[in-house]
Amino acid sequence: MKFGPSNVQTHNAPFLGATRRAPPRYKIRWPLILCAGFSLAIWAALIFGVVALSR
Q1: pLDDT (tens digit per residue) in 13-42
Q2: Measuring CA to CA, how many Å separate 48 from each of 13, 38, 43, 44, 54?
Q3: Distance separating alpha carbons of residues 11 and 51, to the nearest angstrom
Q4: Alpha helix locations (H) across the chain?
């Protein structure tokens, strides 16, 4: 029981610190990329739908 929590704390602390320090950039970039991709897909679908209906 003593080795479990000690190992969990020692191993999780560096990973948590690394995950908190490194990925903020990716966390900020990925939502923007996803939002841009979804918006472009929606606009493309609307334009395609208008063109298809107009024809």
Answers
A1: 555 555 555 555 566 677 788 889 999 999
A2: 50, 15, 8, 6, 10
A3: 57
A4: 3-21, 24-54
Taking the C-alpha atoms of residue 47 and residue 11, their distance in angstroms, rounded to an integer, is 52
Between 52 and 28, residue with greater pLDDT:
52
Q: How many residues does the chain have?
A: 55
* Calpha distance 52→46 (Å, rounded): 10
Residue type at 16 in one-letter notation: L
Scan for tokens 């679908």, then name that residue.
Answer: 45
